[in-house]
Structure formats: C-alpha cells, structure tokens
Task: structure prediction
Amino acid sequence: MILRELIASLPRSSVVGSSDREILGLQDDSRKVRPGDLFIAVKGITSDGHDFIDAAIERGAGAIVVEHSVHDILPEGVSSVLVPDSRHALSVLSSEWNGNPSDDMRVVGVTGTNGKTTTAFLVHRIMKRTMQRAGLIGTVVFDDGLVEENADFTTPGPLSLHSLLARIRDNECPGVALEVSSQGLDQRRADSIAFDVAVFTNLTRDHLDYHGSMDRYFAAKRRLFEAAAENDSGKRPVAVINRDDSYGENLIREFGERMDVLSFGFAMESEFRAGNVKQTSRETEFQLFAKGKSYLVRLPLIGRFNVYNALGALASSVALKIPLREAIAALGNAPQVPGRMECVGSVDGAAVFVDYAHTPDALDNVCKTLRGLDPRRLITVFGCGGDRDREKRPLMGEAASRHSDYCVVTSDNPRSEDPERIIRDIERGMSGVIYERVADRGEAIRSAIQEARGGDIVLIAGKGHESYQEVAGSRSLFDDRQESRAAMDARRKARREDSCLLYTSDAADEEDSVDLGGRRII
Result:
C-alpha cells in the first residue's frame, strides 16, 4: 500500500519526505520491524516508542509515525508522518491496512466491570444461531467463524485486533461480538471500529491501580460510546445500557440525544425488563417484558447477574434486527461460559463451582447466587492479585465473609508481591466467619474440598478460566478447574481405600473375607 493512501484517513497529519513510497507492513514494536515497514512510535506505560526510532530505522523502516518532529535526525530516504496522537493513528492505520473490516460486519462491543465475557458469549450464541456463522473476540475465546482458539487478551492491540477482525470478515461472518476492556479503550485500541451496538453492563471498583479513580475508570468505559457515536462509517449505532446502574443512567442521559438507546434491567422504565425470576441449580427462568409484550426466557446459567447479561444480549439482538423470539430460543441451550459460575463436579454430595469473580461486587453477587441454592454451608476459596489495587482487598474479604460459612483465604496471582502480605490485607475485611489462611492456592483448594460435606457448596473464586498463576514474577501452569477435579478425585480415591479394611488376622472368619495374597478384605 502507498503511504499517501494509507494515511489519507489520519486527521491533521503532515509528512516530511516522500509520501509515494510503498509500505510493506505496520509495526509498533521496533524489534519486529522489517525492511519497508511503517513504524508507529507509541507512548506506552513504561516505555516510549519514540526512544526506539533509531532501532526501527536500523531494521529497515521506510517511514515512521511520530507525535513530535524528528526530521532533523532522519536519514535520507526515510519519511516521517507527524500526528497529534500516535495511539489513535495506530488504530486508524491498523483498520485501513486490513481494509476496514468492521465496516463490513455487524459489530457488538461490550464493556463494563462484570459481565463482559458472558454477555459477549450470549450475543455470539444468538448470532451463530440466527446468522449461521459469527465471530467472537474476548477474554476466554477467539472464534474466527471457523476455528476457536484460546484468547490472550481481552482487547488485543490494534494491529492484532484488526487482523483478527479481517479473518472473521474473510470467513464470511455477518457479525462479531467483541469484549472491550477499560484499558483497551483508554489506550484507544478500539477507536477505528465501526460499532453497530455498544453495550454497558455495569461499573464497580476494579483496575484502580491503572485508572487511579472511579471517575477516570468511567471515562475510559465512556469512550466506547463516544467512538460509536462519532464513527463515520455510515452505520446508525445503538447504545444498550443497564439502567439499574448509576453510571448507566449517566450514559443514557449523555448519549440519549446522540444515538438510539435501549435500556435494560429490573427498573420499570427499562425497555427490556426482567421479572418473576426463578432459579434452580441448573438454570434460571424469568419473564421478559419488551416491545409491549411478555416472553418467557429460559437460560442454562444461574444468578441474577446472568439475567442482566441475558437482557443485554437480547436487547443487542433486537438492535441488530434479529427477531426477539429467535434470540430467546437461541439462549435456551446456550453453552457454559468457561470459568463463569462453572460447576466442575461434585463429591460426596458437595458441589464445586469455579468463577472468575475477582472484584468485591462480583464476589458478592456470586456468593449470593450460590447462597440462594440453600446449601448446608457455603465454603469460599478466594484471594487477590498482587501489584494491583490494595484497597479492594479488605472489600473482597468483607464480601466473602458476608455470605460464606467458611472461607479459605489464599493467593490469586501474587505476581511480585509477598502472598502473606496480600492475605493480611484481605483479613482486615474478614469478620463473622470461620476462615483459614493457606497461601498455596492448590493446597487451599484441596483443603476446602476435603472440608466439604454433603449438601455443601464450594466456590473457587478469582481465576475462572485462567490456566496459569503468576508467583514471584514467573508464570506457571495452574487451572482452578483442573485442581478442583484432581482434589475431588483424590477424595474419592481415599474414600474407596477407607471403605476397605485390610488386615492379616488369623481370627478372621473365612466366610466373611476374601484372600488377596495373604491380606484379607472384610
């Protein structure tokens, strides 16, 4: 692609050097630059791409994108493109390089503290049932319409993100569901995506180590709706917003005159309203009131929070012109979302659930949901991540204490922090509950499952689908689901062994025993 054509959509850009040169690729990492590439110098959290311009040129970059003039240090034959914001430029150029793939599909972007993954999964499910094929980019899975892969990031960087969208488009998917994280929005990774629907689930305390305050955290989430409202692709985007959330109310007031809004929740004013919720250990049933009619919705997921997720998905479907009855039918056999209130089995009458809940609000909601199943006891295993917001740690302890009968406080991803220090921070919020502290997460899971009795529920919270643990700065394989199943298997094995009394006594009655090579089993 010719540089002049590639940068045509960049606002307020100026070129020093030739704009007629051919560009062979895009890179924002100087170590990956190849001859003929365009290097975009982006300011990161810990480093600045402008410091690596020389390295990019040494590797053969034919042109660079910068935020301040560097023409006096450029060698002859290398062009520079000056822009106000190189992060935004990276998103625009990534989309342009891939042929603006989001323009050709119906795109649903989902943001919020909790519920992004499940809502995106449900939207994807509805799309696949009604469109035959659909894409998904999220925390757990990337689905290009033909093949599913494990995901590495909630919202990939712009180069990867638009490349994935192009794969989905090229696989002839009419639609795609996309999780959009606050960090991704703050770093402008989604600036050039043409959204048809922007979904807001909720906002509760999280990621304040990155954002610094709830106001800045909300401002990052708000960018999804700003991007949707300002996109010039010709689409008429719809905002789907949780009216029961106070931040959602703010979004409705602000964007109600700039784009169409569909609200959802339990409030009477909601266009998509839920009522008469009934729950079992396997499914949730509720009445949906929408478009002047009432519908019965059956969802093979549990929890009031999943009612919100289903409402957001159904409202998004209507915004995409999918018949509501078809969307409801698609949810009836929706798949289990990995690591989201996932029942991984039972042992001796005790059920074990794994959930990603890693915020105070999410842990509170998950515990309340499981408490609603009327267990004999709720046993909760949880911790908090290291090198992150310390102030939420006692709040996590408070949430677990409020609903649990027994807790095992352990490590999550300690990263570079001392696990014992993290546990001490959590303990400040613990009250009114019996608990033990076990820093080793695997041992903590085994302890909780060993403690459980018939009728109990064990909740393993915090890591969900994650298949690793970060301890002392290094990452190793660790999966709560696998650890839980292994602990249950070990308990079953021990039970079987305990049920057989092995001994070698001459006093044994021959008719009540079986001889096994000198040992007798009664």
